[in-house]
Predict the 3D structure of the following.
Amino acid sequence: MRTLRGRDDDGFTLIELMVVIVIIGILTGIALPALASQKSKARGAALKSNLRDAALAQEARATADLPYAGPGEIDALVAEGYDVSAAISLTIVDDSMTNAGGGYCLKAQTIGLNEFMYYAKTGPMAGTPTTTACVAS
């Protein structure tokens, strides 16, 4: 003989489970864009940090009475303690800063960001990572 289940049985109904799944989906939809934004900010912070490290290596060369590393001389920065990152491409830009006052300009880009960051020894934005290209002062 079959008996009907009572209301006090353990377990969840299908409707209750579906409501929980819908709520989880809504919360995920809210959280993912915020997470993507934070990921972009983290990449930007890593890029700025990497530029500062390269600038410190340039200054270490100057302290040792060596000329600033020029275009294509990333190995000279590595010799001064600069740690090359696989996710960041660094370029030493020759924009006539050497002739205009003995400065340097570093240009870097990271995976996932479409903009370049610059770090200059001289000029209006000297000493600050910026998206503005270096200008000799």
Observations:
- Residues 14-63 form the longest helix (50 residues).
- The chain has a mean pLDDT of 83.
